[in-house]
Amino acid sequence: MRLRLLLLALGTFAVGTDGMVTAGILPLIAGDLDVSISVAGQMVTVFALSYAVLAPVLATVTARWPRRRALLTALTVFSLANALTALAPSYGVLLATRVLAAAGAAFYTPTANAVATALVPPERRGRAIAVVMGGLTVATALGVPLGTWIGRTDWRLTMWLVTGLGVAAFAGLALLLRELPQPAVALTLRDRLMPLADPRVLGAALTTFLVFLAFQTSFIYYTVATFSATGGDQDRLTLLLLVSGIASVGGSSAGGRLVDKWGPRAVILTSSTAYVVLAAASPWTLRTMPTALAASALTPLVGWSVAVALITRVASLDPANAPVLVSLNSSALYLGMAAAGGTGSLAIALFGDRWFLLVGAALMALATGVAAVTTRAPTGGGPRRRAPEATNDRTDAVT
C-alpha cells in the first residue's frame, strides 16, 4: 500500500519538477533557441495556463474512465511531451510540447489524489493525499536544484530527467497498481464551477491567484534576479535553489502547525505581510551571495506557509465539498503562475533586471489586502449552490 502511494508521489514529483525547474535553466533555453529570457519565460505561462484550463475539463471528460487507465494514459502523455520538449528544434515547437505536457500533468495530479483515497481506509485518506502531494513539495526541494545542476551545460538533459521520472512512475504503477472500482459519482463541469457563486470561495480563489502571481513573477526569472550574486555560475544558482527548496518544505510544515494553532486567517495575513517586507528588500538582498542565501531561505519559508493556509481556508468553507473547492483553488494557483510569466517579463522591460522584484512585493501587498477583506468572520452558511457531496465511497474524491 505504502509503495503504491510512493509511486503515485513519484508521478507528482515529476510533474512538480517539470513545472518549476524552468526557473533554473531559462537562460540556457533562451540562448539555445535564440530568444530573450523574457520570451523564454512564456513557456511557463503556456504550461500553467494550459494546466489551469484543462484540469477541470479533463476531470469531467474522463470521469468514468477506470482509474488505472487514466493514470497510465496521463503519464504516457506527460512523458512523451517532455521527450518532445527535449528534442524541440524551435521555440514554437517548444511551446506546443508544453501544452501537451500540461495536459498530461493536469490529467495526472487530480487522478492520483483520487486513487490515493481509494487505496486506504476513510480515516487515513488525508494522510494518503499528503503522501501523494508531498511529491510536489519534494520537487521544490530536490527536483528543481537537481534538474538545474544536471542541465547546467545543456537544458535538454533536464527535460530528459523529467521524462525519465515520468517513465519510472508509469512502469511502477503499471506493475503494482491493480484496477480500482469505477467512480461512484461523476461531477459535471457545471458542478465543479458551481461553488464560485459563493463570494467567499471566489475571494479565496482571487487571493490564491494573486499570491502565486506574486511568487512566480519573481521566481520564474530567478536567474535574472540573482545574477549579481551568482555571476551566471550554475553551481551557485543550484545552491540558491536548493536552499529555497528546503525552506519551502520547512514553510509548508511550519504553516500547517501555525494554521492549527492560530487559524488560516492569522497565518495568511501575518506571513503574507512578512513576504512583502522580504520581497521589497530583494533588490538589495539578492545582490551578493551571502545575503541571497539568507533571502532564499526566508522568503519561501513565509511564502509557503501562506500557501498551506490558503488551501486550509478554502477547504474549510464547505468541508463536504472540499475536494471540489481545492480543485478550484489549484486552477487559481496555475492561473496565477500563467499570468506571472507575462507580468515578470513586462516588469523586467519596464524596471530592469533589479527593480522588477518590487512588482512581486506590490502584488503580494495587494493579495494581503484582498485576504484581509475576504477572510473576515463568515456571515454564515456554505456556498449558495452546492455541488454534489463527496461521499466516503468515491474514488474521485480530489479532482
Topology, element by element:
Blueprint: H1 2-20, H2 22-33, H3 37-40, H4 42-61, H5 67-87, H6 91-118, H7 125-150, H8 155-176, H9 189-193, H10 199-219, H11 222-225, H12 227-230, H13 234-262, H14 264-285, H15 289-316, H16 322-355, H17 357-374
Helix pairs in contact: 1-6, 1-7, 1-8, 2-7, 4-6, 4-16, 5-6, 5-8, 6-7, 7-8, 7-13, 10-15, 10-16, 10-17, 13-14, 13-15, 14-15, 14-17, 15-16, 16-17
Explain what this protein looks like in three dimensions:
It is a single chain. The protein is mainly alpha-helical and 399 residues long. 79% of the residues lie in helices and 0% in strands. The two termini are 21 Å apart. 55% of the residues are buried.
- Contiguous runs where pLDDT drops below 50 for at least 5 residues: 379-399
Number of helices: 17
As a percent range, the share of helical residues equals over 70%
**What does the largest sheet look like?**
none
